[in-house]
Design goal:
33% helix
């Protein structure tokens, strides 16, 4: 850390859909946790704004007892308004506010003198882009992949997410199963993963929260037989490394321009190759022919599975650790803070 950042006071504004760190699902909360702990370990004075049941070595400020996705008694809109207002009412206590929440905090940013850096995790709808456009030059935006940069916005930089690579040891051996790890939703393509596994003649394990119940009932559940196709539901951090590390390959047949893919990086850190559709950020994450294969369709995925056994799992892990370790991510954000504060 540069001398100019010594004693820096940073507020990290996390989402409050899930706890920080998440118990199972919650990629934005996972990012907020790794960022907070990494900054605190570097000597930054961090206050994490998250749910009251969150776990952190930094200071914790909370207005909601639990996340609204975990507690149906919590009203999302009311809880989020109280949550966001809490950090901006204390803006004068911080040198920088790091917004990992989404677009709504930007509407407070012009009301305070404290600089606001926003990590944009993606665009849930084109309708939210005008909010980002309005505050284009009031603060700074960080993209999580070059593929997710919107042409109407100005960015300070692109910073790929990092993960705690120590939490994902290399798998002892490639298993005989394929793995789908993600939301059960058409965007993520679990039904396509089932088709790939069927045509490849390999068993498939599905893991993830059900985000579209009708899709699950109609396109996924009829194929789940407990043998050729198994569905585990949400898998927590304790079970995730063994599941990822034991797979022959991770199937990632996405049907949208995905900004980033935590499960893709986690699999590669375990030494497991990834077969992903060439969309969104996947060309930035997967080194085609080295850490996995980028394909266009189901036919391409089936063909790639004939070649995954020839990939060096130790080399996959080494490459992934170098590119996606959380220490690299913290270095990148400290440089972004320095650049932003130096221009203020």
């Amino acid at each position: 850390m540069t001398d100019s950042l010594t004693g820096l006071r940073v507020a990290v504004l996390a989402p409050i859909s899930w706890r920080v760190p998440p118990r199972h699902y919650g990629p934005w909360e996972q990012f907020a946790s790794l960022l907070t702990e990494g900054l605190a370990a570097r000597g930054v004075d961090v206050t994490l704004f998250a749910t009251a049941d969150s776990l952190t070595t930094a200071r914790l400020s909370a207005t909601a007892a639990r996340g609204w996705s975990e507690d149906p008694a919590v009203d999302p809109k009311a809880a989020e308004c109280l949550h966001i207002s809490a950090v901006f009412e204390r803006a004068g206590e911080f040198d920088l506010i790091h917004n990992s929440f989404d677009f709504l905090p930007l509407t407070y940013s012009a009301l305070v003198s404290t600089p606001v850096l926003t990590t944009i995790h993606g665009f849930s709808s084109p309708a939210i882009v005008p909010v980002y456009e309005k505050y284009n030059r009031h603060g700074a935006y960080v993209a999580i992949s070059d593929a997710d940069r919107h042409p109407a916005l100005e960015y300070l930089c692109t910073i790929h997410h990092g993960i705690d690579t120590d939490a994902f040891p290399v798998g002892t051996a490639a298993g005989e199963y394929l793995l789908f790890f993600g939301r059960i939703h058409p965007d993520k393509g679990p039904a396509l993963a089932i088709e790939v596994a069927r045509r490849a003649g390999l068993p498939l394990v599905l893991a993830g929260i059900i985000q579209d119940q009708r899709y699950f009932d109609e396109e996924v559940a009829p194929h789940v037989d407990g043998e050729r196709v198994r569905f585990l539901g949400a898998v927590g951090p304790e079970e995730r490394p063994a599941l990822l590390g034991g797979a022959l390959a991770l199937l990632h047949p996405i049907s949208f321009e995905e900004p980033f893919g935590f499960s893709v990086v986690e699999a590669m850190v375990c030494g497991t190759p990834v077969v992903a559709f060439r969309r969104g950020s996947m060309p930035e994450l997967v080194d085609d022919g080295r850490t996995g294969f980028l394909v266009r369709d189901v036919d391409g995925a089936v063909d790639a599975l004939r070649r995954v056994a020839g990939l060096d799992r130790e080399a996959i892990r080494e490459t992934a650790i170098e590119r996606f370790g959380h220490h690299r991510m913290i270095d990148d954000y400290l440089r972004a803070y320095d650049k932003m504060l130096g221009s203020c």
